[in-house]
Amino acid sequence: MQLRGVHHIAVIATDYERSKAFYCGVLGCTLLREVHRADRDSWMGDLALNGSYLIELFSFPSPPARATWPEATGLRHLAFAVESVAEARRELLAAGVRCEEVRTDPHTGKQMMFFFDPDDLPLELYQV
């Protein structure tokens, strides 16, 4: 098997419209298409970042909360590459997004920080 890359990341939101506004309006993703799956009472939106397919955004009725603190087994977070973590953090804070402080990755010397989507899912900014 030869993996060619990551095809997509799926996110389940408690409020589809609120999360769509966050990922598109705040983070700059583009909504490629969305489908209402009536049989599951679920929305699915395909979001792209800089022309690349990145996130499938889903809604389901009453999804259970995911344990995030303390860190739970499973996918930990989604990291976005940025030129300036500090500048991106200022933009997120101005948009009312909860952000942690900027820190330096001890293994690479690069700046990074965590922030949180409307459902408190951890996201990361990482200096390229």
Supply database-style keywords.
globular, 2,3-Dihydroxybiphenyl 1,2-Dioxygenase, domain 1, alpha/beta, 2 domains, 4-stranded mixed β-sheet, 128 residues
Characterise this structure.
Keywords: Metal-binding. This is VOC family protein. InterPro entries: Fosfomycin_Res_Enzymes, Glyas_Bleomycin-R_OHBP_Dase, Glyas_Fos-R_dOase_dom, VOC_core, YwkD-like_dom. One of its GO terms (molecular function) is metal ion binding. Residues 5-128 form the VOC domain. It is a single chain. The protein is α/β, with parallel strands linked by helices and 128 residues long. The protein folds into two domains: 1-64, 2,3-Dihydroxybiphenyl 1,2-Dioxygenase, domain 1, CATH 3.10.180.10; 69-128, 2,3-Dihydroxybiphenyl 1,2-Dioxygenase, domain 1. Helix content is 16%, strand content 38%. It contains two helices and eight strands. It has helices spanning 16-26, 85-94, and strands at residues 9-13, 30-37, 42-49, 52-59, 78-82, 103-104, 111-116, 122-127. The strands form two sheets. A four-stranded mixed β-sheet has the order 1-4-3-2, covered by helices on one side. The protein has a four-stranded mixed β-sheet with strand order 5-8-7-6, with helices on one face. The longest helix has 11 residues, at 16-26. It is globular, with a radius of gyration of 15 Å. The protein starts with 8 loop residues before the first strand and ends with a strand. The mean pLDDT is 93.
